[in-house]
Amino acid sequence: MSLFENRCTEVNQKLKNSKYHYIIFILLVSYFFNSCSDAQSPKVDYTFQVAKDVKKDISEFDEVEFSAESNLDLGFYKGEVWIKLDITNGNIPVSYVVLCNDLINHNYRFYKLDKEKGAFIPQNKVDLEKYDHRSYHFAKPNFKIDLAQNEKSTFLITTNSDGRILQATPQLVGMDDFQSIKQQILIFDIVFYCFVVLLLIVNLFYFRLVRNDIYHYYAAYILAGCLMYLFVEGRLYGLGVSNSLIDHFMFIAIRIWILSSLLFTLNFLETKKTNPRYYRFIILLLFLTLGGTTLYQLAFFNSSIATLHEFENIIGFIWILLSLATVGVAFKKRKTLSIYYLVAYSTFLLFVTLGLLDSHTTMLPGDPFSYFKIGTILEFIGFTFFISLLIKKNFLRAEILESKLSQNRKTLLGKEKILSSKNHLVGIFKLVENSFSNESDWDDFKERFNSLNPNYLSSLLEKHPDLSKHEMRLLMLIRIGYSQKEIANILSIAPDSVKKARSRVRKKLFLEENTDLNLYLKSFDK
């Protein structure tokens, strides 16, 4: 078995073993839905009240009007929001945590009402450029409340948004529930990133085996997606990096993700080959939008963040539409690739939609952002499978070609044996497959013909000196024994044209109707 065949077998075997990737994914999803049960209701009396678009200082608390509304999952919100918590404890000292769902807003302040002074006192003293008042370095804003026996207290949480998505809806959970939420998210993230690493290893193996450039773009897409999640989820929070710098890193990570996503899409669908003008248009658009936005961000480093929050989401939505448009452009010439792409990409869009709906309605179990990750894993699995499927098809086609080449090698070996004998002229040229695409091919053919049958052509021309070059070629092919169809293929003409040419040359040779042309040509053998 050849090295190529060994590699084909190895690829096919690895593709069969890829089912284990899906088993791991099923375990990941099962864990997510089993661990996302709601926290138990606290056994204390409490009420949340909120005030939106507050334009007062904390010392002017009494002048702010609060309402019983507690849904603070707001879109691209600009303004300040206050959350007031009135809580009455029972006869046992206890601790609770106020938890919000925000991931990209690090501007929360936490106060407790000092009844003697009649003022709200900050609960944490930190560097507000790098931290807010949250109690634990956790991706989501959290504020610990310690209550004494029969204590009645009022707490205030304030936050403001510069145009980003605000998810400040408060939730009161016990300490055990809070620790359980942290643990669930940690385990889910560990499984998520381990799964991504596993997919990278699998795709690295495929790349080393087949050396297909699509894996460069696919690996960049996977890594950029992970980078984007790390920044959007606030993984740099608590590491001493300023909040504004975290925002800048986040926007650059999102742009890298968009860039790698579009480059992968273009290469997966082979757009450069099928629609070069559209390919150049998309590349130019990428350069202008992403490059221009980055230049704006850096040029107005201290003031650009507020504008970018809404603008980046719009750009992201536009590029999702352009990805789908690219599929539409490629569908006619690359139908199979387009279907594969749509199947994988649609799973990502479906779960992103579920996550967005849940972030505003809280109708689904679990954390809204986890749906984004599930969709991402499904997308990565889909592309890994479809790329490997395409490679497998290519290898199967290559195996067929290899089989034909092997048969041709055997034929050529037989030809070499025949070449040692000049008495097998017909057999020799039956084994030769020439395209005769140019004059040099014909010259080579003529030399080989003369070497095996010297003086044949000169004898033929001596008797029929008015034969043209094309007629001589036709007669040589007839003498060798090629059929009408084979001659038509060699000369790149229709079989009927060969028939007419054969009739004309018979007249030129002055042959009677009952004279066999093949036998007549053999008479010139010496």
Give a nutshell description of this structure.
With 526 residues, the chain is α+β, with helices and mostly antiparallel strands. The protein contains 17 helices and eight strands.
Strand order of the largest sheet: 1-2-7-4-5
Helix count, per DSSP?
A: 17
Poorly predicted regions: 1-5, 14-20, 418-434
Shape category:
rod-shaped
SSE string, helices as H and strands as E: HHEEEEEEEEHHHHHHHHHHHHHHH
Structural class: alpha+beta
Find the count of extended strands (DSSP E, 2+ residues): 8
Q: What does this 3D model show about the protein?
A:
The structure is a single chain. The protein is α+β, with helices and mostly antiparallel strands and 526 residues long. The strands form 2 sheets. The protein has a 5-stranded antiparallel β-sheet with strand order 1-2-7-4-5. Strand 4 and strand 5 form a beta hairpin. Helix 2 runs antiparallel to helix 10, helix 5 runs parallel beside helix 8 and helix 9 packs antiparallel against helix 10. The N terminus is likely disordered.
Architecture blueprint of SSEs:
Layout: H1 3-16, H2 19-34, E1 45-52, E2 73-88, E3 94-99, E4 108-114, E5 119-122, E6 142-147, E7 152-167, E8 171-174, H3 175-210, H4 214-232, H5 243-268, H6 271-274, H7 276-299, H8 304-331, H9 335-361, H10 368-419, H11 425-431, H12 439-452, H13 456-463, H14 469-480, H15 484-491, H16 495-508, H17 517-522
Antiparallel strand pairs: 1-2, 2-7, 3-6, 3-8, 4-5, 4-7
